[in-house]
Design brief:
Elements: E1 4-9, H1 15-24, E2 26-32, H2 36-45, E3 68-70
Parallel strand pairs: 1-2, 1-3
Protein backbone atom coordinates (compact mmCIF):
# COMPACT_ATOMS: atom_id res chain seq x y z
CA UNK A 1 0.00 0.00 0.00
CA UNK A 2 1.31 3.45 -0.91
CA UNK A 3 2.02 5.91 1.87
CA UNK A 4 -0.18 8.94 2.35
CA UNK A 5 1.32 12.08 0.86
CA UNK A 6 1.21 15.33 2.79
CA UNK A 7 1.95 18.90 1.75
CA UNK A 8 3.21 21.52 4.13
CA UNK A 9 2.21 25.17 3.93
CA UNK A 10 4.17 27.72 5.98
CA UNK A 11 6.38 24.81 7.02
CA UNK A 12 8.86 26.46 9.37
CA UNK A 13 11.48 23.86 10.26
CA UNK A 14 9.04 20.97 9.65
CA UNK A 15 8.12 20.05 13.24
CA UNK A 16 4.44 19.49 12.52
CA UNK A 17 5.42 17.52 9.41
CA UNK A 18 7.44 15.12 11.55
CA UNK A 19 4.49 14.54 13.86
CA UNK A 20 2.05 13.95 11.00
CA UNK A 21 4.52 11.57 9.34
CA UNK A 22 4.81 9.57 12.53
CA UNK A 23 1.11 9.41 13.39
CA UNK A 24 -0.21 8.80 9.86
CA UNK A 25 2.77 6.86 8.48
CA UNK A 26 2.92 9.48 5.72
CA UNK A 27 5.59 11.12 3.62
CA UNK A 28 6.07 14.76 2.68
CA UNK A 29 5.43 15.52 -1.00
CA UNK A 30 6.27 19.24 -0.87
CA UNK A 31 6.85 22.24 1.37
CA UNK A 32 6.07 25.95 1.09
CA UNK A 33 8.42 27.96 3.27
CA UNK A 34 9.80 31.30 2.08
CA UNK A 35 12.28 32.07 4.89
CA UNK A 36 15.87 31.07 4.12
CA UNK A 37 16.90 29.60 7.49
CA UNK A 38 14.01 27.14 7.90
CA UNK A 39 14.22 26.33 4.18
CA UNK A 40 17.82 25.20 4.69
CA UNK A 41 16.66 22.88 7.49
CA UNK A 42 13.90 21.46 5.26
CA UNK A 43 16.44 20.86 2.46
CA UNK A 44 18.74 19.02 4.86
CA UNK A 45 16.04 16.80 6.37
CA UNK A 46 13.99 16.23 3.21
CA UNK A 47 16.44 16.14 0.30
CA UNK A 48 14.67 15.95 -3.04
CA UNK A 49 11.35 17.24 -1.65
CA UNK A 50 10.45 20.47 -3.45
CA UNK A 51 10.04 23.70 -1.52
CA UNK A 52 7.75 25.98 -3.49
CA UNK A 53 8.69 28.90 -1.20
CA UNK A 54 6.09 31.63 -1.89
CA UNK A 55 2.53 30.26 -1.79
CA UNK A 56 1.24 33.25 -3.74
CA UNK A 57 3.38 32.30 -6.75
CA UNK A 58 2.72 28.55 -6.90
CA UNK A 59 0.85 27.14 -9.89
CA UNK A 60 -1.25 24.74 -7.81
CA UNK A 61 -2.43 22.90 -10.90
CA UNK A 62 1.15 21.63 -11.29
CA UNK A 63 1.67 20.55 -7.66
CA UNK A 64 1.30 16.93 -6.58
CA UNK A 65 -2.08 16.42 -4.87
CA UNK A 66 -1.94 15.51 -1.19
CA UNK A 67 -4.32 14.29 1.49
CA UNK A 68 -3.23 16.74 4.17
CA UNK A 69 -1.70 20.17 4.37
CA UNK A 70 -1.27 22.56 7.23
CA UNK A 71 -2.20 26.17 7.48
CA UNK A 72 -0.93 27.87 10.58
CA UNK A 73 -1.00 31.60 11.08
CA UNK A 74 -0.26 33.83 13.99
CA UNK A 75 -1.96 36.99 15.07
CA UNK A 76 0.56 39.76 15.42
Amino acid sequence: MAKLKIGSLFSGYGGLDLGVMEVLDAEVAWHCEWEDAPSAILDAHWPGVPNYRDVSKVDWSQVEPVVFSQYIFRKE
